[in-house]
Amino acid sequence: MKKSFQIGSAFVGLIVGAGFASGQEVMQYFTSFGIWGTVGGIIATILFAFLGYTLAQLGSQLQTQSHKDVIYHIGGRYFGFIFDIVITFFLFGVAVVMFAASGSTFEQMFGIHPMIGSIIMVAATILTLLLNIKKIINIIAVATPYLMIIVFTIVIYSIFTMDLTLQESNALAQEQTAAASNWIVGSILYVSYNIACGAALLIVMGGTEKDRKVAGMGGLLGGIMLGVLIILIHIALLVKVDVVGGVAMPTLELASQIHPFVGVLMAIALLGLMYNTAVGMFYSFTVRLIKPNHKKFKSAIVLTGLVGFFASFVGFTTLVGKVYSTVGYIGIAFIVAIIIAWARKGKKENAYTA
């Protein structure tokens, strides 16, 4: 159970990047649809749990060190190639976004020049990636309980200090900018985009565990925790939408209202989650190109980190931002392929037992 919880917590730590924890993504994909966003959160929980369980089990079954084998197993020769290219590119891109975002956060919260902030994040990421994968999983998993405590605190505060009725909150929430046409599409797109980003490391984490049940339970727990966090943050934003509407970092705003010190704790959590995401994405990207036991792997880590650092200053983040929605729709095709692979596996097992 301990190993399953580590895998699940690391999965959460990877997915819950700056946009998630800041509340901005939850606002656009869930809260902007008012009360129906809660139903969207429940759908997202079910999808995250199922996909987390399936991908971690496949990683364990194939004992893979990179996402390539599982991606081709799911998508076949042609779709597997497309999924592989898109996911590999996006792994690098999201990590670069984390470098740029960390620089801005260091400047906003602590008055440190953004380049210095980015250098700190790049250095921390490279040093961590020089460790083995099991130590990396443990480090990423550490931030999850910390984040859960802060989010619970914010939700309790928001509910007990809300000034609007539920009807007023619902109406005001629907005036916010939405990332999709309706709450169903919003919840599916949110899961597909995050799975496209997080599948690679989840598969690698599953590959570190020989027991498929333990690995699958880790993915399942991670998916449930992700869903619970989505719903909790959504509720907090919904009942305080009059305060956080239009704010760049809604949860940071709510945390600062409780007490400035809580705001600082939330800022530290955001930086920690950016670090988690950068570590997970860059590791998955590098092991796709070169095996972790190769003698040049550590050199590749350093080189990749430096390239990512410079890319964060040359407009690469803008390029990545433009393909976010595209990755979301490709992610839907990926989810369908996962479901088909799962169904086929079930048929084979039933035929074998018969």
TrEMBL record:
Presence of the UniProt keyword Transmembrane helix in the record: yes
Membrane-spanning intervals of the chain: 33-56, 77-100, 112-132, 139-160, 180-205, 217-238, 258-285, 297-317, 323-343
Coiled-coil zones: none
The UniProt record lists the keyword Transmembrane: yes
Top-level taxon in the UniProt lineage: Bacteria
Keyword terms of this UniProt record: Membrane, Transmembrane, Transmembrane helix
Official protein name in the record: Transporter
Organism: Sutcliffiella cohnii
